[in-house]
Write a structure and sequence with these properties.
The structure holds 3 protein chains of 3 kinds.
Chain A (H helix, E strand, L loop, with lengths): L11 H27 L11 H13 L8 H17 L2 H6 L3 H8 L3 H29 L10 H24 L11 H10 L4 H25 L7 H10 L43 H9 L5 H5 L1 H4 L6 H14 L1 H5 L8 H5 L1 H6 L5 H5 L6 H15 L6 H12 L20 E2 L5 E4 L1 H6 L1 H16 L4 E3 L9 H5 L3 H17 L4 E4 L2 H10 L8 E4 H10 L12 E3 L13 H7 L3 E2 L28 H11 L4 E4 L2 H13 L6 E4 H7 L4
Parallel strand pairs in A: 1-3, 2-3, 2-4, 4-5, 6-7, 6-8, 8-9
Helix pairs in contact in A: 1-9, 2-10, 3-6, 5-6, 6-7, 7-8, 7-9, 10-11, 11-14, 14-19, 22-30, 26-27, 28-29
Chain B lengths: L1 E7 L8 H11 L2 E9 L3 H4 L6 E6 L8 H14 L4 E5 L4 H12 L2 E6 L7 E5 L4 E5 L5 E5 L13 E4 L10 E7 L12 E5 L6 H15 L2 E4 L1 H5 L20 E5 L5 H4 L7 E6 L6 H4 L2 E4 L2 H10 L2
Parallel strand pairs in B: 1-2, 1-4, 2-3, 3-9, 4-8, 5-8, 11-12, 11-13, 13-14, 14-15
Antiparallel strand pairs in B: 6-7
Helix pairs in contact in B: 3-4, 5-9
Chain C lengths: L2 E5 L1 E3 L7 E2 L2 E2 L6 E3 L1 H17 L3 E7 L6 H10 L3 E7 L7 H14 L4 E5 L10 H9 L3 E11 L2 E8 L2 E8 L2 E5 L11 H7 L4 E6 L9 E5 L8 E2 L5 H15 L4
Parallel strand pairs in C: 1-6, 1-8, 6-7, 7-13, 8-12, 9-12
Antiparallel strand pairs in C: 2-5, 3-4, 9-10, 10-11
Helix pairs in contact in C: 2-5, 3-4
Classes of the chains: A mainly alpha, B alpha/beta, C alpha/beta.
């Protein structure tokens, strides 16, 4: 039996047409509104590298690559997702009163199609049950405060699945039962229902059919309004994901060759400095808002959020969308709402980010959280001049002495005294020491250890001496893009004048900025983290290093591991008794020092470094190995606060030098 | 030997110690005349350690006024053929000195560490360079506090000033006493800072603050103990706190992380007390004592 | 209210200080705006914002060095124009001569108020401002931590030993500013860019003879190679030695 008959003397399809018109109309209208909002954003040409984009789309969207990294919720989602892809054509069949199946029958596809749809419903059903079990029984911490909406929607979708099976079963029952084994779950339902009398059965089938259609229509209306906008939003998000190297920030202005326009030639009259208005974002930044599923994976890994600060990366993305929704009519009319983007994000949240990219890395749908925060920082620093007071010191120090502490620029190479290094001469490698390695007593020791090891192995290298400057990372992450650019231009000039091609640095921030960001300012170099070079020398036995005897754990610096893509060289360089922390490699947790945070005040009860120091202590290691001067400071401080000073913090190079065989 | 004028100051009832120090410097330079300006200051002013004192005691002179004070001093300088004018390097001296020098169109040397027939030595670049000069002709100089021992109170002959006093639009409407114990951190000549080595907040209050007070210093702190809530953030010295550049920075129980050093590396002289001989603070300190601060501080305090 | 602000370009605080044959080697100095003067500029701009008028920055410097970038930042803060008096043989430690040159230049401007920092962080004389006031025949208030202006009357709080003295005067007057008188704003990038369009005049002025004493010999305080660890038999002994060093060698107490 089918539900395709007259109701109250009117044909079933009249009701269906009316309902479809309402649901589809409402859906299209709302999606149109969102598209118009997103198109307010600035240009961002990502319509290139189509092959790569298609491949990424297939693996990341269709393949759910990053979604399934969370085993429970991820696979539940994948089941629902793949299930719905398989069953979605059933809506056409049910909407046409079976004409679609008939058509498929003519090309001998009906049976296969029936099976696919049935399995699709089954997969979705299983996924939904797991998801409901997670929300209602397991109840992970991050879902505790979430609204009932999620559960209601899950039940509604489950309703779609069950009603579909009932209607399927109805097809097979009637005056004489005809079980279609191409629809195995339908058969199962039919067998359960076969003893029900015909008129009751008809009612059940009719109610199920209309419930099914009402739920689907309702869902269409609901999609653009809630986090289910991700059903559509993830398509452009995944397709047009960022192809820049992770963590590279964009110049103020670029020319036709995609190189930064020199500071002297910047066209300030046509330059938006950072973001404070909705339309200051690029379209792709805006589309993030509607791609977010509120899965909270970014929140779980965010050091700012986990240390109790104002910032929640997921909220930032929600803010973009909600801001657009709430002020949509004004925005589309070209007017400026009194509330700005900075107001919505809150300055406290904006300044709390360490730019560790854990959120971006965790996001299954390629949402870019960090650029939203660094862009608003640009606005606050360059346009509004409204930023944490401590940063004024930082900027003045960088400008006057080209190091964040403002120590005398002429003392930059003092650490190298007595080491007999080449200074300011061409050599195969340039050892770019960086500020901490040049001025901080603790990190000077790292510079010395690195230089000694390189000399020991006979590497031809020089340092720049007083010519070296800060690479500009603190200014850039703090939003002072203009200052960064001036520093980058000067550094590139100096480095090029030495004929530099290969660079070694012990600082992942130098590693990142010089290696990945200077390109746009005319500086193309092969940049190595010292652990990479030192490990290579160890493997080639140019350095004979014993395995380290103490129990040691390695804290991956964000800009070396997750962002830099190097997690193995440091481990091999240390060798021996290495114990991993619960979060390591690209999942490593920030020390709290990045994003210029190390130059800003941090409330004593909201310290990121203490969280990480605790994880290090939990391994029972005697020594925490680091590969970044900021991590050195933050981890040492963290251990001190925990009263764990007996555990040492050492750089990879120091460990290697200690264990160098005579 | 030349004629020397010492411009003394009182704090109402007593001649200031710095004025007596200046008087003793002057004694070695020639025939000394004293000048004390103010209102109701005759009794205290008489104690200035010079043979001859001119007293400009008038109700209109109650508070320091550069215009009036400079007019009196220049009148006396001209009348007595004075070639060397010495003042204490106080808030008045450092203002009156140059104004007077301009009025006399003569040289000025501020904040001298040494003054005498051998010449004058004064600090440049926050004391990081010492500059010596041997001025010829008339000179006005201010002498830094405690650079010399004070002369003894001594009553010489007293003469009252009867010359003109210039008109001035300046009017002092209030003197607010903020107490001597609270020296502004960024302006203090000496900063005594405490760190985690103090072990608890009580020790900061009972050891650092009193020591600072008796040295006329400001009390500072490392980030660690500000975080621990022992002292308010306004005391914090360092990258995210205040930047200080005093003559003397005394770091007590502070290990000296670079975040701290960034805020005090401009100090002229750094002395550190820490039990850990490897503490980085010793790398930047001019003088270091390795030892137990709980033993050292009481002894240090007893010296001031 | 028209305001002139006197700005001294001083060697960066972290400059390398070297003495050769009794003379300070100033060849490699990088110059910056004297930090005390920045408070004066900020105050002037605040008055301008409240009262209207014009803020003219006046600086005296030698002929050679380029000091534009740092000075322009003062325009970015909100001052209207800069006049740099370029003088052959200029020295920062000749307050009498410098005050004469500056006061002559101020006389050509029509100003109600002259502001400057209390002292330069090079020679620490805190003399030039006060001398300028005398030469202009106007009163001065030095070491001011708080300044208000109300219809022709200035009300200043100045630091004195153990307290604050509140002094009032009518304009014209010269005020020298103490540290932390206000919070100097950080110019936004567009202000920095706009400042490039503001008038910046280099004006040659003659050298003048003066009665300023000449430094006969500069010296560095006794070098203490990387710091001196004080040894002693006991704590008492160490403290005694430390105090002696601080008094006699470092001369800081």
């Amino acid at each position: 039996m089918t539900p395709f008959h007259d109701y109250f003397g009117i044909s079933w399809y009249v009701f269906l047409l009316i309902w479809s018109a309402i649901a589809i109309g409402a859906h299209v209208y709302q999606v149109g509104f969102i598209v118009k909002l997103i198109r307010l954003g600035r240009d961002d040409d990502r319509f290139n590298s189509w092959n790569q984009r298609m491949k990424e789309f297939l693996t990341d969207w269709l393949g759910q690559r990053k979604v399934v990294e969370d085993k429970v919720a991820g696979y539940a989602h994948a089941l629902i997702f793949w299930g719905f892809l398989m069953l979605v054509s059933d809506v056409i069949d049910l909407g046409t009163g079976g004409l679609f199946a008939e058509f498929l029958g003519m090309i001998y596809l009906e049976n296969i199609w029936n099976l696919v749809v049935d399995i699709g419903y089954l997969m979705a059903g299983v996924g939904l049950l797991v998801a409901l079990y997670r929300r209602l029984i397991i109840r992970p911490e991050k879902l505790k405060d979430s609204s009932l909406e999620g559960v209601m929607i899950l039940f509604a979708i489950l309703g779609i699945v069950i009603t579909a099976f009932i209607v399927e079963a109805g097809y097979m029952l009637g005056e004489e039962s005809h079980y279609n084994y191409w629809e195995p779950i339908g058969v199962l339902f039919a067998k359960l229902m076969q003893d029900i009398d015909t008129s009751t059965l008809q009612t059940i089938v009719d109610v199920s059919y209309w419930l099914h259609m009402i739920l689907i229509g309702g869902f269409l209306i609901e999609i653009p309004q809630t986090k289910h906008s991700h059903l559509i939003g993830t398509i452009p998000n995944v397709m047009f994901q960022d192809h820049e190297k992770m963590g590279t920030m964009l110049p103020l202005q670029v020319d036709d060759d995609d190189l930064a326009v020199k500071t002297d030639d910047l066209d300030f009259d046509n330059l938006t400095l950072g973001v404070n208005k909705f339309e200051d974002f690029t379209w792709r930044q805006l589309s993030d808002g509607w791609a977010c599923t509120a899965c909270a994976r970014c929140q779980d890994v965010c050091p700012a959020y986990n240390s109790g600060k104002e910032l929640n990366p997921m909220q930032i993305i929600m803010d973009v969308k909600n801001y657009g929704k709430e002020h949509g009519n004004l925005l589309l009319a070209g007017e400026a709402p009194s509330e700005t983007i900075v107001d919505r994000f809150s300055p406290e949240a904006i300044w709390a980010c360490t730019t560790c990219y854990a959120c971006v890395n965790a996001c299954p749908v390629h949402i870019e959280h960090v650029p939203k925060l660094t862009d608003t920082r640009r606005h606050l620093v360059m346009e509004a001049s409204d930023f944490p007071e401590e940063l004024q010191n930082l900027f003045n120090n960088l400008e006057r002495n080209s190091n964040p502490w403002g120590l005398g620029a002429h003392t930059r190479a003092d650490w190298a005294e007595g080491l007999d290094l080449k200074i300011g001469e061409p050599a195969e490698y340039l050892f770019y020491v960086g500020c901490a390695g040049s001025f901080d007593e603790r990190n000077k020791n790292v510079s010395r250890a690195t230089a000694k090891l390189l000399k020991e192995a006979g590497v031809d290298f020089s340092i720049m001496g007083e010519m070296e400057m800060c690479n500009g990372d603190p200014a850039r992450r703090a939003g002072n893009e203009f200052m960064f650019q001036m520093m980058a231009e000067m550094n590139v000039d100096n480095m090029n004048s030495l004929g530099t091609l290969k660079v070694i640095t012990a600082c992942p921030h130098c590693f990142h900025t010089i290696g990945k960001e200077y390109e746009k300012y005319g500086g193309k170099y092969e940049v190595y983290h010292h652990s990479q070079i030192l490990n290579e020398l160890k493997q080639k036995e140019k350095l004979k290093v014993k395995d380290y005897g103490d129990k040691v754990t390695f804290h991956d610096p964000c800009y070396l591991g997750r962002i830099g893509g190097e997690t193995e060289a440091p481990r091999e360089a240390i060798g021996g008794n290495l114990i991993e922390m619960e979060r390591s490699r690209e999942k490593s947790f920030c020390c709290g020092g990045g994003g210029a945070r190390i130059w800003m005040e941090e409330d004593a009860d909201k310290r990121v470094n203490e969280i990480r120091a605790k994880e290090a202590v939990n391994t029972g290691a005697d020594c925490v190995a680091v590969g970044c001067p900021f991590c050195m400071t933050m981890m040492s401080d963290g251990l001190k606060t925990l009263g764990e000073e007996q555990r040492t913090v050492k750089d990879i190079s120091e460990i290697m030098l200690e264990n160098l065989e005579e | 030997m030349s004629n020397v004028l010492v411009i003394g100051e009182t704090d109402g009832s007593e001649i200031k110690g710095i004025s007596q120090q200046v008087a003793s410097v002057a004694a070695g330079m020639g025939e000394v005349t004293g000048l004390v300006i103010g209102s109701g200051i005759s009794e205290a002013g008489m104690k200035l350690s010079v043979a001859k004192i001119i007293m400009a005691d008038d109700t209109s002179l109650e508070n320091y006024d550069p215009v009036k004070y400079a007019s009196i001093a220049s009148h006396i300088v001209k009348e007595h053929n004075i070639e060397t004018i010495l003042l204490g390097a106080t808030s008045m001296g450092k203002d009156l000195g140059p104004r007077l020098a301009a009025e006399l169109n003569c040289g000025y040397l501020g904040d001298c560490l040494e003054a005498g027939s051998e010449g004058f030595v004064r600090p440049n670049f926050a004391g990081k360079v010492l500059a010596k000069s041997n001025p010829t002709g008339t000179i006005v100089a201010t002498i830094r506090n405690n650079a010399y021992p004070a002369g003894e109170a001594w009553s010489g002959s007293v003469e009252n000033y009867s010359g003109e006093i210039a008109e001035s639009t300046l009017k002092t409407t209030d003197i607010e006493n903020v107490g001597s114990g609270t020296v502004e951190l960024t302006e203090a000549a000496i900063v005594v800072s405490g760190g985690r080595g103090l072990e608890n907040a009580e020790n900061y209050d009972s050891m650092i603050r009193p020591l600072a007070e008796s040295m006329g210093a400001a009390a500072g702190a490392s980030r660690a103990i500000v975080d621990a809530g022992w002292v308010p953030h306004s005391h914090q010295v360092g990258q995210t706190g205040k930047t200080v550049a005093p003559e003397l920075y005394l770091a007590i129980g502070i290990s000296g992380a670079i975040q701290h050093l960034g805020g005090m590396s401009g100090s002229k002289c750094i002395a550190a007390i820490n039990k850990d001989p490897d503490a980085p603070i010793f790398k930047v300190a001019d003088y270091g004592i390795v030892g137990d601060l709980f033993e050292i501080l009481p002894i240090l305090k007893s010296k001031f | 209210m028209n305001i002139a602000v006197l700005i001294k370009m001083v060697p960066d605080t972290e400059s390398k200080l070297e003495v050769n044959d009794g003379a300070l080697n100033d060849q490699n100095f990088k110059y910056m705006v004297n930090p005390y003067d920045e408070f004066a500029v900020e105050q002037a701009v605040q008055f301008k914002e409240a009262e209207g008028g014009k803020v003219t920055l006046l600086s005296l410097f030698s002929e050679n060095n380029s000091i534009d970038t740092d000075l322009r930042k003062m325009l970015a803060i909100g001052a209207d124009e800069i006049v740099v008096l370029r003088q052959e043989g200029y020295r920062g430690d000749k307050p009498l001569a410098n005050a004469k040159t500056l006061s002559d230049a101020i006389k050509e401007l029509d100003v109600d108020l002259v502001l400057c920092g209390i002292q330069g962080i090079d020679y620490y004389q805190s003399a030039t401002g006060t001398m300028v006031a005398q030469m202009l025949g106007i009163p001065n208030i030095s070491g001011v931590t708080n300044l208000e202006y109300n219809s022709g009357t200035l009300k200043a709080k100045r630091q004195i030993e153990g307290g604050l003295q509140t002094v009032e005067t009518s304009t014209p007057a010269l005020i020298s500013c103490q540290k932390d008188m206000n919070k100097v704003r950080f110019p936004a990038l567009k202000d920095i860019m706009m400042s490039k369009r503001k008038p910046f005049e280099n004006k040659k002025v003659d050298s003048i003879d003066s009665n300023d004493p000449i430094t006969s010999e500069s010296s560095l305080p006794p070098a203490r190679d990387g710091g001196e660890m004080i040894d002693g038999e006991n704590a008492e002994d160490k403290v005694k030695k430390l105090i002696e060093k601080l008094k006699m060698e470092a001369k800081v107490i």
